[in-house]
Design goal:
Blueprint (H helix, E strand, L loop, with lengths): L13 H26 L1 H30 L2 H16 L4 H19 L1
Helix pairs in contact: 3-4
């Protein structure tokens, strides 16, 4: 298994044989771990999902920053006021929807 041939030369001592056995066990253990990691599809899927969540979060943060910087200040102020009213209980979700719509329209109009 280790690829060493002992057909020529002196016979290995018991200590040398033990060392070879330990080395072979270590190599076999590493091989088993590598194969188990490849076969663990569930863990691979979790790892990929975590990676994709992280990428999506970064992208959302970047896009939020871009939208905020490109939105005119008066529109941002109105959106902030609408959000505050909604949090305070004085506004309906409709107010928040109107604020979001205003932001989207402002961004769209700046592109055209």
């Amino acid at each position: 298994m280790t690829g060493k041939s002992h057909s020529h030369g002196p016979k290995p001592t018991p200590d040398e044989l033990r060392a070879q056995v330990e080395e072979t066990r270590r190599e076999l253990g590493e091989t088993v771990e590598a194969l188990a990691a490849r076969a663990d599809v569930r863990a691979q899927a979790r790892q990929k999902a975590t990676q994709l969540r992280s990428q999506a979060s970064e992208k959302a943060h970047t896009m939020g920053d871009r939208i905020q910087h490109r939105t005119p200040q008066p529109v941002r102020d109105k959106a902030h006021q609408a959000a505050e009213m909604t949090r305070a209980g004085g506004g309906a979700p409709l107010v928040a929807g109107v604020a979001v719509l205003a932001v989207l329209l402002a961004v769209r109009s700046r592109r055209h």
